[in-house]
Amino acid sequence: MLYESSVLLQNRGKYQERDLAQLAKSQKYDKFRKGKSLQDKAMLNVQLGDQGAIVAGGYAVYKYYKNKGFSHKEAIKKFESVTESTQQSGDISEQSYWQRGGSLAKAATTFRSSPNQYLRKELQAVRGILTQRGSLTQHAKTLVIYHVVLPTLFQWVSNGFVWDKDEQKRAAILGSLNGLFMLGDGIDYVLRKMLKLRSFGMQPTILSVFKDLGDLIGIAKKENKTSEDNLRAARKAADVTGKMTGLPIKALVDIEQGVEKISDGKLEEGLKQVAGLSPYIAGQKGSKSKQTSRARRGRTKRKRR
After folding, report:
1. What is the pTM of this model?
2. How many domains does the chain have?
């Protein structure tokens, strides 16, 4: 029902590229194509996942306004309005100043659409409080949802549904500040150091391909490579190729490796990797806090002996 009535929903996930020249190129010859390109087919799972998430949350909005007596067309407009104001979008009107910048600015804001959207929501709530416009309770609710609830929920999911106390604390403190242009990664890096968490560096996305290439060469030159080294090399090679071609090759490699783990009896780990989690996260058996506690108990027992 929502899909047939909403042009916004039908177009969700189709145009991931923000570069207008690339977008124009992809649309210019659409009518002359017999079928979808390999890149279009490879991104189908992204489009379906994006649309599925919108339908799951948006249907409640649609149903709410229908129950209040709104017509189908009016309820669809309300649904689209809420979607545009709360979800990341490839539309120019929904992007920040830096996201609309040149190629370097775009490279520095890759995967920052959602944090930017949430940060703008927070700033709107802060302005509402300072100017005493609207309900103070509603503004406070907005701040809690976009700065604490959503970031900690996403962190929990990205950790493979494992509740890591320190990672959750970092997510709650950082909130949507990681959407700040250039400063977001720096703030995250400092927080990780303060909380003694694993740090992932601060190199721009555009330079990460060189790091991956260097890691790949390092693995290739390693003597007596193990099966783990071969798996890492396959992921690194897929990552480098994917970043250079724009195709989600690493995702396909992860799915293949996940299926192999399932066939080897590692059902939970394999399913998590097929779902898109990294091998490191998929292989975790519990939170870092629990693992640390077990390690400490083990050291205590050895000392007593």
Report:
1. 0.60
2. 3
